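Attaching the record inline, Q. Sequence:
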Amino acid sequence: MKLVIVIVRDDYSEVLQDELADVGHRYTKLASTGGFLRKGNTTLLVGVDDADVDSVLEIVRATCKTRQELITTQPMPMSPGLAVPPIEVIAGGATVFVVEVEHFERI
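Structure, as predicted:
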């Protein structure tokens, strides 16, 4: 048995949850916050048999695409009048961990 930990931006969360549920994958949802862009994230914990890991990964890949996004930054306190242009970053996608589960029990 495996535990698939999927961390996605909130804008992908509902669609991903719907897609997982449509094929019968159960999950636990945790709210989380990203460190780099400080945007809302959702972490899904999906317990699956070894044979179902690929199914979960395919759904994540199809649902959580990366995209270019412009973000604005604050000027440094030493130079308050200096305009800081927005920077382009790659956003979206998902971070996925697959770990072995030694024991699982639903009570």
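The first strand starts at residue 2 and ends at 9. The two ends are 17 Å apart (CA to CA).

More tomorrow.
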